[in-house]
């Protein structure tokens, strides 16, 4: 390596370190402010806590107590986990059926799933809220099926794409050996689908955990999820926002995702690339 | 296998019908009606569509959205490409940098909006104003936020694209005496075009449909001037009694624009794949 190249490498390395600091700065600021007293945040968010403005864990205690953050956290977790599991299972089954049973009806159905991917949420939000409320699915269990309906487009599309590339021989052999379609699916097809199922699950989990408008319209302020709780704490307070508690809420919303990310980074990044290329 | 339809397809289909198919058809129908609830709809023809353009809200939102999208697409992709280029140069700590740059992408839109609300208002407070003082602040605030959120995402796609370029191509260019700039322009960038197309359209649709970040960062302030299309539609639906029909008509127009973008993307990626 020439001296010039080495020098260029060092410059880039230093630039990347500076850039990393810029990227981490916003999260750092929120973290710092969550330990400051509530009147020392607005106006001077960049000041480190001093002995007068240090609040310890007080903000976390008030945030959890007054804003019902604990309940919202558990509700978000419940909805995300079960939606993701149901989407993974049912959409795999649907995708397999649509690929293997070829007729006019399955073709139309498949086109409808693909079509739904390009329709923005605002197009259906009002009427969807009406339908879901009318049939009493507007509760933390019912919303799981709403997510199944909205997630089906991308999930069926990606899973079908993978199934099309799997040779049908194995399934035919299983059938000859006397497997019913249900047995064939669970013993042969689903295990083969695993990589795409992981991708689909990660994409859906990121979407559902962070989703705001859909749970707000369907569950309202009674059964609030984490993003809804954060939005209400800010907008519902009309000028008397407890900034300390609010910062603590933001930290509580960020930390689980970052921990999850650091442990399953490889899958998340691979999933995002696969999703981007296909979607 | 055919008779297993009720088990394999029906549950998904019912959920899909409830969440999407029925609401979509109702939505198209209702855009031609005046209503305050779904049950009292009265047919009014194209009246709602005329009223969409009756005041400046929708046009403002459309203009703001287009401008914001154009700036975001360019800035996000240029930065993401440059960082990807730097990180594929066998640097120390490449993985750690990649981890850090990608992280903001995982944070939800509402949380992102409030993080940047705090920071931008913190900076502006030194000048005695806040983000709702001028639409310019809101605009650039949204651009900065979107860059912070999407650069890592697009960077990951560009890195994957760069790593797929065969090494001997660049070596051949070097042997032929190409400078680094020439190799970049004539080898790397043409080979990277599929990634460029994907990233451009991803940024385009993401920026165009932005809602959560918009709501949390500016909520349209000052005076709805920084409300993008999705937020304007939301405000029309839920902010003004008797305007639900107009909101639905705006939503249909919004849908048509997004569908057109998707259609152009399909043409683009389709023809690119044939070439390669």
Written account of the structure:
The complex is a heterodimer of chains A (279) and B (276). Chain A has a domain at 73-225: MetI-like fold. In chain A, 76% of the residues lie in helices and 0% in strands. Chain A has 11 helices and no strands. Chain A has helices spanning 3-33, 58-66, 69-100, 104-116, 121-134, 142-164, 169-176, 181-210, 213-219, 226-235, 243-278. The model of chain A has no long low-confidence stretch (mean pLDDT 89). Chain B has one domain (57-275): MetI-like (MetI-like fold), CATH 1.10.3720. Helix content of chain B is 73%, strand content 1%. Chain B contains 13 helices and 2 strands, in the order ααββααααααααααα. Chain B is globular and about 75 Å long. In chain B, 44% of the residues are buried. The model of chain B has no long low-confidence stretch (mean pLDDT 91). The interface between A and B is large, with 89 and 85 residues.
Strand content of chain A: under 5%
Shape of chain A: globular
Please, what is the CATH homologous superfamily of the domain at 73-225 in chain A?
Answer: MetI-like
CATH overall fold name of chain B: MetI-like fold
Helix content of chain A: over 70%
Alpha carbon gap, first and last residue of chain B? 39 Å
Overall pLDDT of chain A: 89
């Amino acid at each position: 390596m020439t001296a010039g190249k080495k020098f260029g490498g060092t410059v880039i390395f230093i630039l990347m370190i500076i850039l990393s600091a810029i990227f981490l700065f916003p999260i750092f600021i929120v973290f710092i402010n969550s330990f400051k007293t509530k009147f020392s945040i607005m106006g001077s968010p960049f000041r480190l806590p001093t002995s007068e403005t240090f609040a310890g864990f007080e903000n976390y205690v008030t945030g959890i107590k007054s804003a019902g953050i604990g309940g919202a956290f558990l509700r978000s977790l419940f909805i995300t986990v079960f939606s993701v599991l149901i989407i993974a299972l049912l959409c795999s089954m649907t995708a397999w059926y649509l690929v293997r049973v070829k007729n006019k009806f399955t073709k139309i159905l498949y086109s409808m799933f693909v079509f739904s991917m390009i329709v923005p949420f605002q197009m259906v939000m009002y009427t969807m809220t009406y339908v879901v409320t009318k049939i009493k699915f507007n509760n933390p269990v019912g919303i799981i099926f709403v997510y199944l309906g909205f997630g089906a487009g991308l999930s069926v599309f990606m899973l079908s794409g993978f199934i099309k590339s799997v040779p049908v021989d194995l399934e035919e052999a299983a059938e000859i050996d006397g497997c019913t379609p249900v047995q064939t699916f669970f013993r042969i097809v689903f295990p083969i689908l695993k990589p795409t199922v992981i991708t689909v699950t990660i994409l859906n989990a990121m979407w559902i955990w962070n989703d705001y408008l859909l749970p707000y319209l369907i569950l309202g302020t009674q059964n609030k999820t984490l993003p809804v709780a954060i939005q209400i704490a800010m907008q519902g307070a009309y000028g008397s926002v407890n900034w300390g508690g609010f910062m603590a809420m933001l930290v509580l919303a960020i930390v689980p995702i970052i921990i999850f990310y650091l442990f399953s980074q490889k899958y998340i990044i691979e999933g995002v690339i696969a999703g981007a290329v296909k979607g | 296998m055919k008779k297993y339809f009720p088990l394999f397809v029906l549950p998904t289909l019912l959920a899909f019908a409830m969440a999407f198919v029925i609401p979509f058809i109702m939505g198209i129908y209702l855009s031609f009606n005046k209503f305050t609830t779904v049950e009292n709809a009265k047919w009014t023809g194209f009246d709602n569509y005329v009223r969409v353009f009756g005041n400046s809200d929708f046009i403002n939102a459309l203009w703001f959205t287009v401008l914001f999208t154009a700036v975001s697409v360019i800035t996000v992709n240029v930065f993401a490409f440059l960082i990807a280029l730097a990180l594929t140069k066998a640097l120390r700590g490449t993985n750690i940098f990649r981890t850090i740059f990608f992280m903001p992408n995982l944070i939800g839109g509402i949380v992102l909006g409030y993080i940047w609300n705090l920071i931008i208002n913190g900076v502006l407070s030194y000048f005695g104003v806040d983000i709702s003082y001028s639409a310019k602040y809101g605009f650039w605030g949204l651009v900065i936020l979107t860059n912070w959120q999407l650069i890592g995402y697009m960077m990951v796609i560009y890195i994957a694209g760069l790593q797929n370029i065969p090494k001997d191509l660049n070596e051949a260019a070097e042997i032929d005496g190409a400078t680094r700039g020439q190799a970049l322009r004539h080898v790397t960038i043409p080979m990277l075009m599929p990634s460029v197309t994907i990233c451009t359209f991803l940024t385009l649709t993401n920026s165009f449909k932005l809602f959560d970040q918009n709501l949390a960062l500016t909520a349209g302030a000052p005076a709805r001037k920084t409300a993008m299309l999705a937020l304007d539609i939301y405000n029309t639906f839920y902010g003004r009694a008797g305007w639900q029909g107009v909101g639905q008509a705006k939503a249909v127009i919004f849908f048509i624009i997004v569908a057109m973008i998707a259609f152009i993307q399909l043409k683009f990626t389709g023809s690119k794949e044939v070439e390669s």
